[in-house]
Amino acid sequence: MTNALSRLLETRDWLLADGATGTNLFNMGLSSGEPPELWNADHPDRIAKLYSGAVEAGSDLFLTNTFGGNASRLKLHNAQSRVRELNRLAAEIGREVADKAGRPVIVAGSVGPTGDIFAPMGTLTHELAVEMFHEQAEGLKEGGADVLWVETISAPEEFKAAAEAARLAGMDWCGTMSFDTAGRTMMGVTSADLAALVEKLPNPPLAFGANCGVGAADLMRTILGFVAAGTERPVIAKGNAGIPKYHDGHIHYDGTPELMGDYACLARDAGATIIGGCCGTMPEHLRAMRAALETRPRGPRPTLEEISAKLGAFSSASDGTGDDPGAGRERRSRRRG
Prior knowledge:
337 residues; alpha/beta; two-stranded antiparallel ribbon; 45% helix
């Protein structure tokens, strides 16, 4: 199957993804605890503004406002009956924005975790997870999303369920996990584990990688882990804009546009193909990233020392794979600032 993302990847050696969804929507008035997915129906103009902000800043790809758009998450707000509707609306708004861009722009249907724990520790089963993801995927497909974008996953079981749901919906997909605890996901998956898992799936993703996590430096170390595993698939890097700080009653990410420009080029040079931002990443960060990627020549693969010098110290001594002595020596006596 060929789609818009596959075609774009054939003609470009890097693509710029979008930035934060939540951070931007909070700036538009979203209240803490309010499900952003309801805005797809209640405030479509604001969702169009969110998407347009990324496109105008130079993004080749943006995610729909559907991260929590599965039945389990929406049930917390008594909106579980609206899964298909809310996902379809988000994709329809995205399709309209992308088609007006005057250049190829990919509408990626965001699919976040269910928020449930798999049995036997929890109640979630493979069948139930597939059912929830499939329902969401069908809504995104109806609305015109080009691909599914499975993100911020911690458990391999959930990654597998999302892959099966994409197959059932007849959609290509991309998938990222969030590595936030000493180079591992909350469920203990390392970069090497994910690189191996992807190749074992019956319908592997078009691209895979990491999003969110701690800071840009940690995410970069995970990207190097994917490359070291020998993957030939396009790698996704979607790091946070620095580290969150509490300031004047709200969370502020300390990453400057300049730092994110450095991060984008480091990610490209490390081997990532699809590069974007996660929490805290605003249009001004994306503009700096696009400018840096377009104007700075490709360089050699960065070392851990070069990454920490430009992006800040790593939050842990190891990337979780057990073969990272360089980081151990370098970081043992330092703490994240």
